[in-house]
Sequence to fold (186 residues):
Amino acid sequence: MGTTLTNQNSIQEEIKSRLKSGNACSHSVQNLLSSSLLSRNLKIEIYRTIILPVVLYGCETWLLTLREERRLRVFENRGLRRIFRLKSDEVTREWRKLHNEELNYLYSPPIVWVIKSRRIRLAGHEVRMGEKRGVFRLLVGKPKGKRPLGRPSRWEDNTRQIFRKWDVEVWTGSSWVRIGTGGGHL
Fold:
């Protein structure tokens, strides 16, 4: 599918490659994003339909660490600053850059949230496929061998954390289980 895999199961190179492609795509539409002739809503649609799909291709399989989440937020904030430009400060009447919190208020959903929601959607598709399909066996299977030292996380563990945080119901093959504050577990 065009994704980069390493023998250490690290997704850093894939995310770096996606961000590089996103920067190239963003550079190609830079004139549109910085134009004063286009409305802010149109610039946001350009960002959502042209730049984000390039960056988020295959993101359902990514296992995000805090470092990768930060890199993705930095990419997103840089792109949004091109769209929203400068803001006049009411007190000093000087022009200044928008703060990250202001960008988050003006644009939603954040890129990390989009990745996590796509991962939940993929997990739902895989679970509904049935136990005889290969994709389902990959989802619930346990690979043989030892995992590397440190605190390596698995896609399944990371997805369960999202389920718990968002209080999501999950089909376990025989019944629905609520993951999160309501109790239950996979």
The first strand starts at residue 86 and ends at 88. Strands lie at 86-88, 95-97, 169-171, 176-178. The chain is about 55% helix and 5% strand.
